[in-house]
Amino acid sequence: MFIAYGMKLSGNCYKLHLALEQLQLPYRWVEIDSMHGATRTPEYLALNANGKVPLLGIESGKYLPESNAILCYLAADSALLPNDRYERAQVLQWMFFEQYSHEPYIAVARMINAFLPADDSRRADLPRLRERGNQALAVMEQHLATRSYFVGERYSVADIALYAYTHCATDGGFDLASYPAIGQWLARVAAQPSHVLLGS
Amino acid sequence: MFIAYGMKLSGNCYKLHLALEQLQLPYRWVEIDSMHGATRTPEYLALNANGKVPLLGIESGKYLPESNAILCYLAADSALLPNDRYERAQVLQWMFFEQYSHEPYIAVARMINAFLPADDSRRADLPRLRERGNQALAVMEQHLATRSYFVGERYSVADIALYAYTHCATDGGFDLASYPAIGQWLARVAAQPSHVLLGS
Q1: Which residue ranges traverse the bilayer (chains A, B) (predicted)?
Q2: Are residues A53 and A148 in the same domain?
Q3: Tens of pLDDT, residues B63-90
């Protein structure tokens, strides 16, 4: 039985929710309200010194943070993680792209735009976040123009990682209608067996 | 024969240089001056649409970007990447930590402090970058206080990934003397066989 520590409305935590359901793994969800300090308590920092969600409890004393590392752990020896050396490296390539070139703009724009008060000073960051986020979406659009999924023409944890914040990018003020190949890929991902909705 | 496209002074590119030397793999280095637009040419963007270094040329038509995905690819089936499922996931955990919580602060502070003119407006970002970078160093210090290496008490690609920008953090104005466990770990990494210096 895994323990998934996360906040249901977070895209990074949603990745776990999707993988646990689609891999039909037994788990218990522990809601951690990272918007209100629950990741900064001494008890939580003892489990994850970096003070972030999600976190996977594997067994007594074994914990794993970092959403994309958790996806790779859960998907080991499953159809969601290719065995081929180059394909597996491409899955990681897109996961690192997600955490470095995509999430810091698209997820952060969503957080500011959808969750902070209308007069919050961080709204001044939105134009720059949207510019960089659109650069990431353009890279994805070009890649998906000739492909059904990110790697090897099969649904993998790379798709889960990128779906999490792309499918709700409109929350951050992004116009997904400008990216038709992304739109078709989002529909393919949402049609996978055992798909669950963000926040459910 | 691999082709390593990179800029020798970049820590992300240095990761490849270290791994290629330490794994004794045959390669040719192609210097790409990303500080002066060489990653934005049509020819380079055709190889890596995300316009970044490093990039690994594997064989005709096969390329792999993202420094940490390249490390995992190169280290497959070697002593630098553990076979155990949990240890391998922990290697990825620290690599995602590096790209999300470490590099955007410690590498960017170095770039601004060491490479931009004294009157560059981005110097105003340095206090915030140093605050966040020190948070990452504190997480590493706590982890290394009871360990020799990041995962499984063995040198791995997680150490290479974190060494790249940590060992030169003073370039960005960080005081490594405040982190004794990191200092001892840096010495252990530098003492590995076939270690090479940044920029060499």
Answers
A1: none
A2: no
A3: 999 999 999 999 999 999 999 999 999 9
CATH number (domain holding residue A94): 1.20.1050.10
Q: Which of these three, B57, B75, B93, is where a domain ends?
A: B75
Cβ contacts of A143 on chain B, cutoff 8 Å: 49
Q: Do A139 and B50 touch (CB under 8 A)?
A: yes
Asked if B90 and B108 sit in the same domain, the reply is yes
Question: What is the distance in angstroms between the Cα of B141 and the nearest Cα belonging to chain A?
Answer: 11
Q: Is the pLDDT of residue B134 over 90?
A: yes
A100 CA to centre of own chain: 12
Please check whether residue A198 lies inside any domain of the structure.
Answer: no
- The domain containing residue B14 runs over which residues? 2-75
With beta carbons under 8 A apart, name residues in chain B contacting A64: 86, 89-90, 93
A64/B90 CB distance under 8 A: yes
| Cα separation, B197 vs B14, whole angstroms | 8
Using the Cβ of A101 and the Cβ atoms of chain B, whether some distance falls under 8 Å is answered with yes
